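Quick one:
INPUT:
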C-alpha cells in the first residue's frame, strides 16, 4: 500500500495546533522532528550528550511535521485543504513556512515501522498511556488508558495534555461531573471517567474528533459514562459542572472566559492548558476578572496549564 507523506514546516508555538489539524482530517499517523527537543536535551545539566555550536546551528528552527494519509486520496485536494487549514491557524499563531510538499512512501517505509517509537508512557505515577498493540502489566493502583497515536491528536505525549491530565488527577473527586471543551481524541474525558468521575460531557467543533473520542471511549470501556458530540461551548446545554477542562489555545481560552462561569458550580474548577508562557498573565488576568481564583500554575517546556477555582458571579 502507498501512503502520502505531507510535510509541514512550522514553529514550536504552532506545532501542537498543526498536528491536531492534520490528524483531525484523517492522517493515519504523524511524525514530529523538533530541533528544540534536541537542544533542550543537550543543554540539560549533567547531560552526557555533546554537540558543537555548528551542529546546533545547523539544526535550524523549523519544527518539521510529517503526516501520513492513505495513498488513494486526491493529492491536489488534500494539499489545498491542508493549506487552507494552516491559513486559518495563522490567524491565531505564527505558523512559519507552512505546507512544504508531498511524496509517496511505501508500507515498509512507514506504515508498520513507526509503531516501534510508541511505548507505554507515564503521565504521572498513576496514569499510563498504552498503545493498543503494546503489552503492559498494570502495577498497584495504576490507571491504564489505551490510545493509538495514529488515530488523532491528543495521545498524552504533548506537554499540554500531560499537564492537564495531572491537574485533573489532582482536583477531581469521586462522582464529579466534568465538561471537556475541545476534547480532541477524548483522552482527558477518558481519564476523568477512569478517575471515578460522574457523567462526562465531551465536545469538539470537529466532527472527526468527536467520532475518534467515541471510538476511544469504547476501546477503554467507558462509553456508558461519556457523552460526546459536536459543539462549541456556547452550544452546550446549560448545566453547572464540578470541573470544566479546556486543553486548547490561549486565544480560545480567553474568548470563552465570559461563558465558562455559567457552566461551573461555585467552588468548581476550570482547568486550562495549551497556553504558551507569553500568554500566561493575560489568561490569569482575564479569568480573575470573571470571579476566578488562580489556584495552581504548572509549566512544562514552553507551555502552561492553570487551575482556576470558581467563586461565583461578581
Amino acid at each position: 500500500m502507498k501512503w502520502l507523506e505531507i510535510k509541514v514546516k512550522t514553529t514550536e508555538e504552532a506545532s501542537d495546533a498543526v498536528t491536531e489539524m492534520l490528524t483531525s482530517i484523517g492522517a493515519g499517523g504523524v511524525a514530529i522532528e523538533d530541533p528544540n527537543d534536541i537542544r533542550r536535551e543537550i543543554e540539560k545539566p549533567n547531560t552526557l550528550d555533546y554537540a558543537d555550536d555548528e551542529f546546533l546551528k545547523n539544526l535550524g528552527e523549523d519544527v518539521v511535521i510529517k503526516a501520513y494519509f492513505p495513498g488513494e486520496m486526491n493529492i491536489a485536494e488534500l494539499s489545498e485543504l491542508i493549506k487552507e487549514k494552516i491559513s486559518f491557524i495563522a490567524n491565531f499563531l505564527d505558523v512559519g513556512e507552512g505546507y512544504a510538499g508531498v511524496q509517496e512512501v511505501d508500507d515498509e517505509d512507514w506504515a508498520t515501522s513507526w509503531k516501534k517509537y510508541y511505548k507505554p508512557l507515564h503521565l504521572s505515577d498513576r496514569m499510563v498511556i498504552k498503545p493498543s498493540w503494546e503489552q503492559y502489566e498494570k502495577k498497584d493502583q495504576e490507571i491504564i488508558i489505551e490510545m493509538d497515536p495514529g488515530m488523532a491528536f491528543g495521545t498524552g505525549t504533548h506537554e499540554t495534555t500531560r499537564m492537564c491530565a495531572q491537574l485533573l488527577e489532582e482536583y477531581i473527586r469521586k462522582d464529579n461531573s466534568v465538561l471537556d471543551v475541545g476534547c480532541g481524541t477524548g483522552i482527558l474525558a477518558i481519564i476523568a471517567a477512569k478517575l471515578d468521575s460522574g457523567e462526562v460531557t465531551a465536545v469538539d467543533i470537529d466532527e472527526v474528533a468527536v467520532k475518534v473520542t467515541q471510538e476511544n471511549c469504547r476501546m477503554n470501556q467507558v462509553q456508558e459514562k461519556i457523552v460526546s458530540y459536536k459543539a462549541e461551548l456556547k452550544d452546550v446545554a446549560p448545566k453547572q459542572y464540578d470541573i470544566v477542562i479546556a486543553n486548547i489555545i490561549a486565544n480560545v481560552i480567553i474568548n470563552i472566559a465570559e461563558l465558562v462561569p455559567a457552566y461551573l458550580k461555585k467552588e468548581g474548577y476550570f482547568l486550562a492548558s495549551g497556553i504558551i508562557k507569553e500568554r500566561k498573565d493575560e489568561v490569569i488576568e482575564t479569568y480573575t476578572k470573571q470571579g476566578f481564583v488562580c489556584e495552581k500554575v504548572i509549566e512544562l517546556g514552553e507551555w502552561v496549564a492553570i487551575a482556576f477555582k470558581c467563586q461565583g458571579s461578581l
